[in-house]
Amino acid sequence: MKAHLLFRDQDFDPAQPLPAHATELTLDLGLAPLFDAMTGEDTVIRDAALRTVLNPLVEHDAIIYRQDVLRDAMANREVVRRIYAIAIEAIDLEHKNYFGVVSRYPGAVLHRSVDVMTMFVEQLGKLRRIADLHAPRFRSEGFGAFFATLRRELDDAYFAELRDHLARLKFNGGTLISAELGEALKGRNYVLRQPNRNQGNWLSGLLGRGPKSYSFKLHPRDEGGARALSALNDQGINLVANAAAQANDHVLSFFRMLRAETAFYVGCLALEENLAARGKPVCFPELAPAVERVHRFGDLYDVSLALSKQEPVVGNDGDLTGKDVVVVTGANQGGKSTFLRSIGLAQLMMQAGMFVGAASFAANLCRGLQTHYKREEDTSMTSGKFDEELARMSAVIDRLRPDGLLLCNESFQSTNEREGSAIARELVLTLAAHRIKIVFVTHLYDLAHSLHARGDPAMAFLRAERDADGTRSFRVMPGEPLSTSFGQDLYRQIFVTTQEPAPVA
């Protein structure tokens, strides 16, 4: 039995490795607040969120499938949380039953397996009742197939038969085992048999002809005899004990998979509720193929910043459709880096099958998202800052594929203007020629001006908005590069203070 709530035709792998650049993505895009809002203290949800967000999908149909399931989850929040809670409860109950976990004796293994399976039957019954009560409220293919599987495979006849088998496996009337004599009068070919049928009342048993068999009784203090009889019993029930243990493992794996897959959706519900509490909108994005260049957004904001700050976070509107290269310039602390993070976060969330932080959003899929952000000075002094930038960019280029997305934030500014601009310009033009989509935030005027002078219609130029008095609106608008980043605004803000005139004697 499969859940298939994250993928149409395959299981989710909770142990799949994170990409090599997962740490860089988390740092550069500020993903920590996003994961915190999704997971809280729940490590299961955190693991599921990490592996879905940082391993984005690239197939259009797979993303739509997950979006539809998430829409159902948002429309039926308490039902989905109840399914997640049932899976957790089933796994916890199995963990608490320690008896026979490491035992090699078939009797102990069978005893534990029967106890655990009895608890599993109760949890499966809860899932079946949810399917009966709430299935008509769900519209997605994923939940539809899940509930149909529960109702088909967990019908009343199945539960009746399963409970009957569990009652028999307790062997309250003893075990009936057949065996053959082997070499040296040792037993072999031990086989567990069905118990003898009831022979009727005591009178028919007394007057009737009894079976040809012999019996004996053990003395209460005959410990050796008890051990020998227990060993014979273990040989007879060995196959049944193994089969019961395997059945337990199968049901346990189902609950573990159900927990992992529903964990992602429970995390998405928590994230949406956190954003709603801050008055921030979310929307399900429109998808375009990776070979196209589509990028439209309304009120696009940095989700992690919105979750971290109490103050209102400014969103951006824009249409970058048809653009391979986007260059963002403008005033220091004007919102350029925040805008870049919002682009990266929206792309990751979209390709995880989630909603995005915007009033509207449409973008083409990308075959891998890479980031190259400025770093602090290397405290170990093993290399210069510029050398470190080049080494990281080399690793990024090795990971890039056609129709990938590269986000650069103030790259190559650890050297002089001329050298940094020359390197960045060659990099941008070469990657764009290989169908890499690039969003580049820079203070290098030589770089931005030379690219703007090309007049390439596949390039867009944005600028952080600044009023005449130096006020930042934290919006990014279309605009050609300027030769200044208005650093004097920051100088006046930090170092220049207005002093009252000295009193006249």
Can you offer a commentary on this structure?
The strands form three sheets. The chain has a six-stranded mixed β-sheet, sandwiched between helices. Helix content is 50%, strand content 13%. It starts with 21 loop residues before the first helix and ends in an 11-residue tail after the last helix. It has 16 helices and twelve strands. It is elongated and about 105 Å long.
Terminal Cα separation, in Å?
93 Å
In terms of quaternary structure, the protein is: single chain
Radius of gyration (CA) equals 33 Å
Main β-sheet description: 6 strands, mixed
CATH class of one domain: Alpha Beta
- What gross morphology would you assign? elongated
- The stretches of 5 or more residues where confidence is low (pLDDT under 50) are none
Average pLDDT reading: 83
Question: Which sequence of strands runs across the widest sheet?
Answer: 8-9-10-6-11-12
The second-level CATH architecture of one domain is 3-Layer(aba) Sandwich
How are helices and strands ordered from N to C? HHHHHHHHEEHHEEHEEHEEHEHEHEEH
Helix content, binned percent = 40-55%
